[in-house]
Amino acid sequence: MMEPSQKYRNHRSRWTIRELHFVEEHYGKLPAQDIADQLGRSINGIRRVVHLLGLGNKSVGPWTEAEIALLHSHYKKGAGLGKIQSLLPGRTRAAIAALACKLGITGRESWSASEKRFLKEHYGKMPTRKIAATLGRSVSAVRVTVNQLSLGKKSVGPWTEEEMAVLSDHYDRGLGITYVQSRLPGRTKGAIRAQASKMDLTGRRPWQPYEDIILREFYPELGSSIISKLPHRTLPAIKHQAKKLGLRYRR
Q1: How far apart are CA 188 and CA 194, in angstroms?
Q2: What is the pTM assigned to this prediction?
Q3: 8 Å CB contact between 77 and 84
Q4: What is the pLDDT of residues 34-83, one digit of tens each?
Q5: Domain map of the chain by residue range?
Q6: pLDDT by residue (tens digit) across 92-119?
Q7: What are residue 30's DSSP bridge partners?
Q8: Per-position b or e across 18-47, b if 16+ CB within 10 A of its CB
Q9: Angle CA(132)–CA(38)–CA(206) in degrees, nearest 5?
Q10: Phi and psi angles of residue 27, each rounded to the nearest 5 degrees, phi first
């Protein structure tokens, strides 16, 4: 088995053009975990690059028998959508959930009385992800059960100084509303956005090193057309960052 130090040998280093090309060429053909292993990157690192390059939007065609068999095997065992998605490159979580519903795959058995009791005791006090990990359930399954038990309707009162500190620390780092919500149990996304607005927090995601690599490599030749390689950035944001890096479009 590969040692952790070897497996993630490039985890903190900047992405290279060669690595980005490798992801573009092999994503959808190789499992995401295999790509991560070959590049010495974490699976989350691969997913971020796939998301930024817009590769997850590619059409991968009809479901194969092998994919359906894998879905049957893992979904019934209660594997979360994130885990199943890592085994089905190119398939979105929505597509996986839709097919499972169509095939009548229900996932793990019903929640036990002890699991529901644990959820009632800890929801709103413990992060949702930690509850899911403790119970061996997916985050989605926990949220569904929270709604069924009407636990999400509890009033959590005014924002505390601790909550505002968490919001200030995470929101402005551009970590995404879903992640921020996982750190603020009991707060809805709407409530988080409203409080962030009151605190003048922008939630802008900082530019990543591999995005700068793409800019330096392609902006001088492509100019505004580079937006196809940075689908989650606006054109004004791209031009601003290019100017900041001293890049000019060679017409």
Answers
A1: 10
A2: 0.32
A3: no
A4: 888 889 888 888 888 887 776 765 556 778 888 888 887 777 666 666 77
A5: 4-57, 70-103, 113-153, 161-198, 209-244
A6: 776 777 777 677 666 655 677 888 888 8
A7: 27
A8: ebbeebeebbbebebeebbbebbbebebbb
A9: 60
A10: -65, 130
